[in-house]
Amino acid sequence: MNKIITYGLLIISSFSFAQELPSLVLKDLDGNDINLNTLVESENIFVFSFWATWCVPCINELDAISEVYEDWQDETKVKLIAIATDDTRTKKRVRPMVNGKGWEYLVLYDDNQDLKRALNITTLPHTLVLKNQKIIQRRTGYNPGVEDELYEIIKENSN
């Protein structure tokens, strides 16, 4: 049943129009400013994964992708950006979790949740696929195996 719902959501979301990425600056783990539009300037595929340290499905999804991420990059040049939406109370948990998990993603803080609000994201995990600075796919939630479906979308849209 979960797969039917997941496929239905994927089909519905694939008919959505391409939304442009808002022009915002977020901080990386070292406190450096990262301009989102500059970050995604290339024609490569980018995946933005909105997550939080308290969100178990988010962590499960990022763990699952981490196991195959190097292969994904080799085959498609995709780049995953993990966007932490933790607030000031839980933000201090982000770096230790990322280091402990060994995630090789670029991690950005959206601690004021400006990007989350601008993109009308209300549920975590929330995954966006971008190409040419436009959002071409949205997905919410996580079930084991959904990362394979995500990879199919990435392959279909990479050149």
Main β-sheet, spatial strand arrangement: 1-8-7-4-5-6-2-3
The CATH architecture classification is 3-Layer(aba) Sandwich
CATH topology: Glutaredoxin
State the helix count: 6
Q: What is the total domain count?
A: 1
Helix content: 25-40%
Beta-strand content:
15-25%
Report the count of strand segments: 8
Mean pLDDT: 89
Category from helices, strands and their pairing: alpha+beta
Radius of gyration, in Å, reads 15 Å
Compute the separation of the termini in Å: 33 Å
For the largest beta-sheet, the strand count, sense and barrel status come to: 8 strands, mixed
Q: Based on Cα principal axes, name the global outline.
A: globular
Give the low-confidence spans: 5-16
CATH superfamily, by name, is Glutaredoxin
Would you write up a description of this structure?
This protein has helices at 2-14, 36-39, 56-76, 94-101, 114-118, 146-157, and strands at 19-20, 25-28, 33-35, 45-51, 79-84, 106-109, 126-131, 134-140. The chain has an eight-stranded mixed β-sheet with strand order 1-8-7-4-5-6-2-3. β5 (79-84), α4 (94-101) and β6 (106-109) form a beta-alpha-beta unit. The N and C termini lie far apart (33 Å). α3 (56-76) runs parallel beside α6. The model is unreliable at 5-16 (pLDDT under 50). The relative contact order is 0.23. The chain has one domain (2-157): Glutaredoxin (3-Layer(aba) Sandwich). With 159 residues, the chain is an alpha+beta fold. The protein contains six helices and eight strands.
